[in-house]
């Protein structure tokens, strides 16, 4: 469980059905909002959580773009299970920045 007020890394969540489902949800949301960019499987690389009004899941994932090219992304998915609410807050390509991922 994430601590109130801070982003906490969730170890071992890379292989969880919940993390996989949230990553797939983020990719499908991106495909709905733009021309279909991704196909096939999504691989969760790491996850972090922040307790807000619900939980903000920070997911680093690898998605396969149309044409078979694997690309790394960061997604933020806000979940409030008691309201059956799930929303993608952010979905962006991880750049070549040397500080990316060190936050």
Task: Provide a brief overview of the structure.
This protein is of the alpha+beta class and 103 residues long.
Q: In words, what does this structure look like?
A:
17% of the residues are buried. The protein has one helix at residues 17-33; strands spanning 8-9, 38-52, 54-65, 70-80, 85-93. Mean pLDDT is 82; it is low at 97-103. The two termini are 20 Å apart. It contains 1 helix and 5 strands; from the N terminus they run E-H-E-E-E-E. It has a 5-stranded antiparallel beta sheet. The protein has 103 residues and is an alpha+beta fold. The longest helix has 17 residues, at 17-33.
- Strand order within the widest sheet? 1-2-3-4-5
Instruction: Please give the oligomerization state of what you see.
Output: single chain
pLDDT average, as an integer? 82
Q: Count helical runs.
A: 1
Taking the sheet with the most strands, its summary is: 5 strands, antiparallel
Poorly predicted runs are 97-103
Element pattern in H and E: EHEEEE
What distance separates the N and C termini?
20 Å
Q: Per the principal axes of the C-alpha atoms, what is the gross shape?
A: globular
Secondary structure: number of strands = 5
> Which structural category do the helix and sheet elements fall into?
alpha+beta
Q: Radius of gyration in whole Å, from Cα?
A: 13 Å
What share of the residues does DSSP label as strand, in percent?
over 45%
